[in-house]
Write a structure and sequence with these properties.
By secondary structure, this protein is α/β, with parallel strands linked by helices. The protein is built from 24 helices and 21 strands. The strands form 2 sheets. It has an 18-stranded mixed sheet, with no helix packed on it. It has a 3-stranded antiparallel sheet with strand order 1-3-2. It starts with 11 loop residues before the first helix and ends in a 10-residue tail after the last strand. The relative contact order is 0.04. It holds the Pfam family LRR_6.
Length: about 675
């Protein structure tokens, strides 16, 4: 007779109940010659004498788990030495002439199963106390999972012993939707909180063993006011994924699911896809970054987003070892008229120019609803850039944001993209070409494009390229033109000196320039360049709100020039990043005097890594103590501020009820516990 365990695969507890029956009745010495019927195998009952032996077994298993004991002596297992549930180990030498037999359960999970049987025989009060005290102890996790399954048969043990432990705490966080400009900064209500995630997963596994518990937990989840299910950085297995999906598939208020960096592979992805296909699921945002999904996982996701039940709008697949094969499958899916996807993140994969071509053909299709495409940290090269450029040039393409940073794109690729955004069909608003191989030649092509009245680009990232003062000049001339709609320009980490800064300063001083944010971090602007920029933001034509001059070899002299500028009522600057320079206490004093002035509109100031001591801290403390100061955020990390400086700042915040400072960063200073 062949008994198929799969026929009984209702839950893990049922599998182990059948496994114990088969092991014991088929392989135990006392039953070896018995011929059992199918009905006897399928029954959960054992002969009374066997049940009596199991009680001893249960206690051994429980005490072993409690004490961290996996190996047992012959006296502990006496009467069960020949049991098929034990494995005999090498004898232990007790004295020179004596040896003791040693045993262990045939598998740790079998010991955990019998420990659960022991718990299931406790009374309600005793069990409730034990579970509540140990539910977050990892060594009992599988024991409690088995317990939940065994409680189905125990009328005296209510499901609430386990379900009452479901955490209800939530937290309001930013939704991490920075992949799109429209949703950046949006708040969501997240559950579970960081300190309760392990507990939540343990309970999800438990309730999967009991349909009654599952219904109770689903009702409880619906009563918790949250929409963001957050299991970031937790280490899920495919089994964990299945447990979570089974519980939440009917909880309709969940719109966001965060599963970043678990590494559960394509099998875990297959379980998540079941949720996407569920008719009751309202999931619109899914983060599966860093999960080793590979092309196989991409295949499952492509099938899921093609399903007419799937409501997903945003999908992040960063760092999943997806190649052009996976890209082709996803590209085919997003042109299906069932697919509602608007944002897809494919950064940090192995997508080449071929994969870029598949995606280009997809966004070229009038069924495709994609607005945001992230392909950062792939290897699409100039050829892939050319394919994508041709696509965004098409009137069918609805793409608004394209991230092509870190893709080995040179001036040739930049030229193709420039020609595309120059076309009146192109709807692109944000283009990221950071960390490529673009020089002043590519910058010139892009400058010519944004100078054209067809171009709708508002944000251009060119950080980490090889753009020199010549390239800065080309871009400055472009943003000086009344056709240019650029609001944000990032030129950090290029080769721009005070000469390039002078060109840019002249541009933002012009009433045609609409630039609000300028990043120039990691260049070599120096005090001279700082002076040019200070004169520009001092002008009433300048609309700049954010200026990043971090790591630019600026001293207290440059700080003085900028301090004078932000002190002027024409200056509209709200955020100034001065980190990684060398402004010292003198520069801190100049800036303190500026933010002390009622003309200054600065809300955020970053002075991290600037050789500021307690003297500079005292000047800044005096400033934020003034009713005129509107500063809300102050970064002073990585300086030489001592306890004295910390005291000055603390007194300023505490003593002035009008102080508007909400965030103060003082990490990596010389502050002791006293400070």
């Amino acid at each position: 007779m062949v008994l198929r365990i799969s026929a009984y695969r209702r839950n893990l507890t049922d599998i182990y109940k059948k496994a114990v029956k088969i092991f014991y009745l088929r392989h135990n010495e006392e039953f070896r010659d018995e011929d059992f019927t199918r009905e006897e195998f399928e029954s959960d009952d054992f002969p009374p004498d066997v049940e009596e032996k199991f009680k001893k077994l249960e206690k051994i298993a429980f005490e072993g788990i409690k004490d961290g004991k996996l190996v047992f002596g012959v006296n502990e297992v006496r009467g069960m030495e020949g049991s098929a549930l034990f494995h005999r180990l090498l004898d232990r030498e007790t004295t020179a002439l004596k040896r003791e037999q040693q045993f262990c359960f045939i598998h740790l999970t079998m010991q955990e199963f019998f420990a659960a049987r022991y718990l299931a025989n406790m009374n309600e009060t005793e069990l409730r106390n034990f579970v509540s005290m140990n539910i977050e102890d990892g060594k009992w996790q599988l024991v409690f999972q088995f317990l939940a399954g065994l409680m189905n048969e125990k009328e005296n043990l209510p499901s609430e012993i386990i379900t009452d432990l479901l955490p209800v705490e939530t937290e309001v966080i930013e939704s991490h939707e920075e992949w799109t400009e429209e949703t950046r900064g949006r708040k969501v209500t997240s559950w579970p909180t960081k300190d309760k995630r392990r507990l939540a997963v343990t309970l999800f596994k438990c309730v999967n063993e009991s349909s009654e518990m599952k219904e109770i937990v689903q009702r409880k989840l619906q009563q918790i006011n949250f929409n963001f299910l957050n299991f970031i950085y937790f280490g899920f297995t495919p089994v964990d994924c299945a447990s979570v999906v089974t519980v939440i598939r009917n909880v309709q208020q969940i719109s966001h699911l965060e599963l970043d960096s678990h590494g559960f592979g394509p099998l875990g992805c297959l379980e998540i896809c079941k949720l996407l296909k569920c008719s009751k699921s309202q999931l619109s945002w899914l983060n599966l970054a860093g999960n080793r999904l590979t092309d196989e996982g991409a295949k499952y996701l492509a099938e899921a987003i093609n399903n007419n039940n799937c409501q997903l709008r945003t999908l992040n697949l960063w760092g999943n070892n997806i190649s052009e094969i996976g890209a082709q499958l996803l590209a085919k899916a997003i042109i299906n008229n069932n697919c509602q996807l608007q944002t897809i993140g494919l950064s940090g994969n192995n997508i080449t120019a071929t994969g870029a071509q598949y995606l280009a053909e997809a966004i070229n299709n009038d069924n495709c609803q994609l607005r945001t495409l992230h392909l950062s940290e792939n290897n699409i090269s100039d050829i892939g850039a050319q394919r994508l450029a041709k696509a965004i040039n098409n009137s069918n393409c609805q793409l608004r944001t394209s991230d092509l940073s870190r893709n080995n794109i040179s001036d040739i690729g930049a030229q193709h993209l420039a020609e595309a955004i120059n076309n009146n069909n192109c709807q692109l608003r944000t283009l990221d070409l950071s960390a490529n191989n673009i020089s002043h030649i590519g910058a010139q092509h892009l400058a010519k494009a944004i100078n054209n009245n067809n171009c709708q680009l508002c944000t251009l990232y060119l950080a980490g390229n090889n753009i020199s003062d010549i390239g800065a000049q080309h871009l400055a001339e472009a943003i000086n033109n009344n056709n240019c709609q650029l609001r944000t320009l990032d030129l950090s980490g290029n080769n721009i000196s005070h000469i390039g800064a002078q060109h840019l300063a002249k541009a933002i001083n012009n009433n045609n320039c609409q630039l609000c944010t300028l990043y120039l971090a990691g260049n070599n602007i120096s005090d001279i360049g700082a002076q040019h920029l200070a004169e520009a933001i001092n002008n009433n034509n300048c609309q700049l709100r954010t200026l990043d001059l971090s790591a630019n070899n600026i001293s207290h002299i440059g700080a003085q020039r900028l301090a004078k500028a932000i002190n002027n009522n024409n200056c509209q600057l709200r955020t100034l990043n001065f980190s990684g320079n060398n402004i010292s206490d003198i520069g801190a004093q100049h800036l303190a005097e500026a933010i002390n002035n009622n003309n200054c509109q600065l809300r955020t100031l970053d002075l991290s890594g600037n050789n500021i001591s307690h003297i500079g801290a005292q000047h800044l403390a005096k400033a934020i103590n003034n009713n005129n100061c509107q500063l809300c955020t102050l970064y002073l990390a990585g300086n030489y501020i001592s306890d004295t400086g910390a005291q000055h700042l603390a007194e300023a915040i505490i003593n002035n009820n009008n102080c508007q400072l909400r965030k103060l960063d003082l990490i990596v200073n010389s502050i002791t516990e006293a400070g």
